[in-house]
Amino acid sequence: MKDLLLVVRLVVIEKKDILYTILFGFLAGIVAISLFASSGYLISKAALAPPLYTMTVMLALLKLCSILRALSRYAERFFSHRATFAILGNLRVSFFEKLEPLASGILQKYRSGDLLSRIVGDVESLQNFFLRVFYPPIVFVLVFLSTIVFTSFYSVYVALSLLAGMILTGFIVPILFALRQRHIEQGIQSERGELSTEVTEFLYGFRDLKIYRKLEERERRLLELSDLYIREQERKEGLANFSQTLNTLIANCVSWAIVALGAYQVVTGKLDGLYLAMLVMISLNVFEYSIPLAAFPVHFEDSRRAAARLFSVVGKDATMKLEPDSEIYNLDQDAISIDINKVTFSFSDHTRPILNQVSLTLPAGSKTAIVGPSGSGKSTLLQLLMKMQIADHGRILLNGISVDRIQEENIWKSMNVVLQENHFFYGTIKENLLIARENATDEELEAALTKVQLDGFTLDQAVFEKGENLSGGEKQKLAIARTLLKGSRLWLLDEPTSSMDALTEQNMYRHLFNQAKNDTLVLISHRLTGLEQMDQIIVMDQGMVVESGSFTELMEKRGYFYGLKQIEKSVLF
C-alpha cells in the first residue's frame, strides 16, 4: 500500500483535471437519473391525460436532460483521460529520475526481461488506476447518496433499499472479490515477468541455442510459460465476470424489491401511485454506477501489484543524494587529481568485499595503470570513480572534493571513458560519434575515425542494434574515437584494446597518450606490455592493493608484478 500511496501523490498533482472529472462525472450521473426519473413520471402522468402544455414542458425537460447528459459525459471522458495521460507522464518521469542513478548496477539485480516487464507492463497497468480505481468510487458514492436523499422524500423504504444495494454492490462484493483477486494477481504478475525474461533470453541467445541444439527445448519452455500465463489471465477474467454478474443480480433484486415495496405502499395509501414508475426507473438507472465497481478489485489489485513491483526496482533511497548541507561543486577544466582513502565496497548479494581498504593517490596529469587478475576489483574501482556505485566505507576525492559533494553529471562531463562493454545505438556511425560531442563537424568526425584506423568507414554507414554488425575490435576503436572527440581531462580506460592485435594496440595508445599528454589517465589492463611509460602501476589482488610503483621499481622488487610479468613472457614467448 505504501507504493500505491506514491502513485496517489503523483495523481493528486493534477488537481484541476481531477476536480473537473469528479464534477462532470457526478453531473452526468445525476442528469442520467433525472432523465429516467422524468421518463417514469411522464409515463404515469400521461395516463391521467394532463393538459398538453404540461406534456410539452415535460418533453422539453427530457430533451434538455438528454443534451446535458451527453455534454457532461463527454466532459468527464475528456478531463479523465487528459488527467490519465498527465499522471502517466508524471509517473514515468518520477520513476526514471529514481532509476537513473542506479542504471549502472540495475542489471546486476534484475534480469533485463523482468526489468522491461516492470518498466513497460507495470507502468501501463497503472493507467487504469485513475480511470478505474481512484475517481469512480467517489462519483458512485456522490450519485448514490444524492439519489437516496431524493427518494427518501417519497418513500423511506425505497431509500433504505437503495442504501442496502449501494453497500452490497459498492463495498461488500468488491472487498470480498479483492481478497480473492490478490492471490490470482500475484501469480499473473510473476508469470508475466518470467515470460518476458525468457523471451528476452531466447532472442538474445537464439544463435547459441541453435548451435548447441537446445532451441526446441527452450521453445517448449516458452510455450509452457505462455500457456500458464494465459490460464492465469483466464482465471482473472473469469473472476471479474463472476463479480460483475453478482453485482448485476443484486441490482436487479433490489429493483424488484423496490417494485414490491412501492406497489405495497401504493395499495396501503402511503405512496402516490404517480411516483411508482419514477422510483422504479431511478433504481434501474442508479445501479449502472455500481456494476462497473465489480471490476474494482481487479484494477485495484492490478494497480497495487504494479506499483509494488515498479517501485521495488528503485527502492526507498534510490537517488544518490548529496551530503546534507553541502555545496554542489563543479570540477575544474584542468587535469584532475584522485585520492582514494580506505575504500571498501561490496555488492548487496556478495558476502565478501569486492574492494577492501583500498587507498591510492593519483596526482593531476599522472598516468596510472591498474593491473591484476580477473576479479581483483579493478573495474569496480572505476565504477566508484564514476559514481556509478557508492562506497560502503572510505572516501574518494576528485581535486580534493568528495564525490558525495559532486553531482554525477559534473563527474561524467569531466571524464573520457572506455569500458569493457560499450553500447552502440541503432543508427549510423555519425550518430554514435555525435554522442560524445554533438556540435562536431564532419571533418572532425572523420579525423577521429582516421586516428583509430576506421577511415574505411563512412559517417553514413549503418550501425545495427548493440553494434551487431561490428567486430569486437571495431567496437573498441569506435569507443576510443568517441573519447578522442569528447576531449575531457580525466581518462578512465578499462581494457580498451583487449580485442585488438599488438600493432593496432600500439597505435591506439600512441593517439590516446598524445591527446592525454597533460591529463590524468587511468588504464586497466591484463596485458603488462607497454607499461614502461606509466608514471605508476597499481597491482591489485582480491580487492586489495598488493604493490605500487613505477615499472622499473616493481621489476627490481621482484614481487607480485614481477611474477605476473614472468608468467606473461612464458605464455607469449
Automatic annotation (TrEMBL):
Q: Where does the protein end up?
A: Cell membrane
Q: Which GO terms describe its biological process?
A: cell redox homeostasis; glutathione transmembrane transport
PROSITE patterns documented for this protein: ABC_TM1F (PS50929), ABC_TRANSPORTER_1 (PS00211), ABC_TRANSPORTER_2 (PS50893)
Looking at the Swiss-Prot or TrEMBL record, what is one Pfam family this protein matches? Answer: ABC_tran
Source organism, top-level taxon: Bacteria
Q: Where are the transmembrane segments?
A: 18-40, 52-72, 129-150, 156-179, 245-267, 273-296
Q: Where is the ABC transporter domain?
A: 338-567
Q: What is its main location?
A: membrane
Check the record and name the Gene3D superfamilies matching this protein.
ABC transporter type 1, transmembrane domain, P-loop containing nucleotide triphosphate hydrolases
Per UniProt, residues of the ABC transmembrane type-1 domain are 22-305
**Can you provide one Gene Ontology molecular function annotated for this UniProt record?**
ABC-type oligopeptide transporter activity
The GO cellular component terms are:
plasma membrane
| Name of the featured protein | ABC transporter ATP-binding protein
Q: Which organism is it from?
A: Peribacillus loiseleuriae
